[in-house]
Amino acid sequence: MNVAILMLCAGHSTRMGTPKQLLPIGNKTLLGLSIENAIHSKANRVFCVLGSQADVIQKSISHYDVNIIINPHFNDGLSSSIIAGITYLKDKNFDSVLILLGDQPKVDSNYINALILSSENCPTQIIASQYNKTLGVPAIFPKSYFNQLLQLKGDKGAKNFLNTQRTQAIAIESDKLIDIDTQDDYLNFLNSL
User: Domain count of the chain?
Assistant: First the structure.
């Protein structure tokens, strides 16, 4: 099974007040840590969607073996990054895409591999992360869903779509699903290390 990871990291980091992709975590950045987790998984290739501060962020991750996709419409919200990524990937030789956020540093290669394994066992179904009663990303979408992903709108990304497709989705629970959106989130994460 040929799996592409599509890491979404094009946003403004408005609530953080500074590009959160560049926040230091040890000798890495927040985005660098997320990329390393993705690279060390069973996925075949990692693609990063950049938008806001793309030049600076691209330079900070240039030593990683990732492909960069620039989203010129990043102001239109998370969905625009998914569309930019799927548009780029749809004609490539991938069976599925695993959509990840660049600000979930606890989503490690073990969790990513668990999603991929579930997808290998149920290749026609969406594999999604369970948040209380809702589904979200990280999530794996088989290629048969690519055209529907291209119709997404707004800043909810794939969340609304996932929750309308519950019968087609397998939910995976984890304690790793924290986002770093604010200074408090960042400090709490650093304190947990």
Answer: 1
